[in-house]
Amino acid sequence: MKEKDEIELFKASIYEENRPWGKFRSFPHEMAQSIKIITVNPGASLSLQYHHHRSEFWVVLDPGLEITVGEKVWQPQVNEEIFIPRRTLHRLRCLGPHPGRVLEIWLGASSEDDIVRLEDDYGRT
Prior knowledge:
This protein is mainly β. It is built from 1 helix and 11 strands, in the order αβββββββββββ. The protein has a 4-stranded antiparallel β-sheet with strand order 3-10-5-8.
């Protein structure tokens, strides 16, 4: 399956239902290789990186984050959803005074070894 088709299928498979108390969004876990919550400490950042074998889908859980995807750098809103195609440079930073979190879903067969770091504050490039 082509990467663009994979992302479009994932997006189309997100289900939302309204309830009397609000709503829920259900994500297609069958397509996920990994689902995790990433917590970044104040002043810290992940490496500027990309992946050969996976795309990523992020949901921003907390304020105070800065996200880089390709050439775009911005401070996302809480609940903002971000698709990161494989082989696209990306980074997550916490600019706020409290730890910031994102929910991350991997799309495509991958592992923690599929990280190509271009810049890293911790000497892992």
